[in-house]
Amino acid sequence: MFEVSSKTNGGVNEVKLVGRLDVKAAKDADEAFAKAAAEAKDVRLDLAGLDYIASAGLRALKRLRAAVRENGGTLTVSGVQDDVMDVLEMTGFAAMLTFE
């Protein structure tokens, strides 16, 4: 199961992910990420409820980062669970992201 929700708060689009970001969920994540980057310059990604991320999810995250940077904004990530952080670190994504 995967859920994504977002809201704009003070010029920052806050996107919350819950569940498993696998190949099935990557399309929903891509759509939500594109909308978030279009609605606000800065994006805050709450991963407290995300317990798994696959390579398709990493690609979606990379596209979000590129879109935010292209808009001159910042992407911040918060609430990363240990298992997800392990994947981010092993793949080099942790070095590309800003964590709160």
How are the elements arranged and paired?
Elements: E1 2-9, E2 12-21, H1 23-39, E3 42-53, H2 55-70, E4 75-78, H3 82-91, H4 93-96, E5 98-99
Parallel strand pairs: 2-3, 3-4, 4-5
Antiparallel strand pairs: 1-2
Helix pairs in contact: 1-2
Series of H and E elements? EEHEHEHHE
Q: Which of globular, elongated, flat, extended, rod-shaped describes the shape? A: globular
What is the radius of gyration? 12 Å
Share of helix among residues? 40-55%
Give structural notes:
The chain is α/β, with parallel strands linked by helices. It has helices at 23-39, 55-70, 82-91, 93-96, and strands at 2-9, 12-21, 42-53, 75-78, 98-99. The protein is built from four helices and five strands; from the N terminus they run ββαβαβααβ. The chain has a five-stranded mixed β-sheet.
Notable characteristics:
single chain, 47% helix, 100 residues
Summarize it.
The chain is 47% helix and 36% strand. The protein has 100 residues and is α/β, with parallel strands linked by helices. The protein is globular, with a radius of gyration of 12 Å.
